[in-house]
Design a protein that fits this description.
253 residues; alpha/beta; TIM Barrel; 12 helices; binds phosphoenolpyruvate
Length: 253
Amino acid sequence: MRKQIAAANWKMNLSYQEGEQLLDAILNSGIALSGNRFAVFAVPAPYLAMAKSKMANHPNFYVAAQNMYSKKSGAFTGEISAPMLVSLGIDHVIIGHSERREYFNESNELLAEKVKIALEHNITPIFCCGEALPVREANEQNSFVSTQLQESLFSLTAEELQKVVIAYEPIWAIGTGKTASSEQAQEMHQHIRNEIAAKYGKEIAETISILYGGSVKANNAKEIFGKPDVDGGLVGGASLIADEFNQILSGLK
Ligand code: PEP
């Protein structure tokens, strides 16, 4: 069975101490994950080492960076490189979140480079894709997401692609309280899987975890995650509340 993942995206929220408290509340709640069920915490960069040390005795709990640069080192003030993440033992990174695309002008081409360099360093990219409201209203979401996949992922080999986690996040549902219906999520996830199958074959497509993101909460996670092509979620707001995120974790298949 594919990996089922609940990934928390804290974005630029919480102090260091609040982050510690939140992780302690989740990890000490008695929740345990095994088999194909995983939790990933994408914490702000200054908290990566702290979060990593807290996961030490918690199998299937991982830490992710929220972003990473496309170069290995050099004069790129303020950026974080893949080798830096490796040196902290961090093995997941979110690539291409819609906020990075929108506010930091990250293009599909740049994201292709970031995915590639993450994979070269054995870091799992959680690659985000998804359409804005006008695209959905024009019913062009499928071709829009296909282009994102083609331009950022489809030059990878099949072996490389199998190491990528995809997160479908309709922008109109992020932080808005407006969730895609579980049917809309399933429809797009199936489309993404079909696109992968067309390029790499059905067998490869069946192995790729595709997460849904966009106002996932304790009260809707189970229904959304229950859809056949949805393999968990990327969660913003609700991941900042221990009880909410624990319930979301329990909603994994
Ligand atoms: C996100 O940050 O990727 C996200 C989906 O946020 P929210 O759950 O708050 O909509």
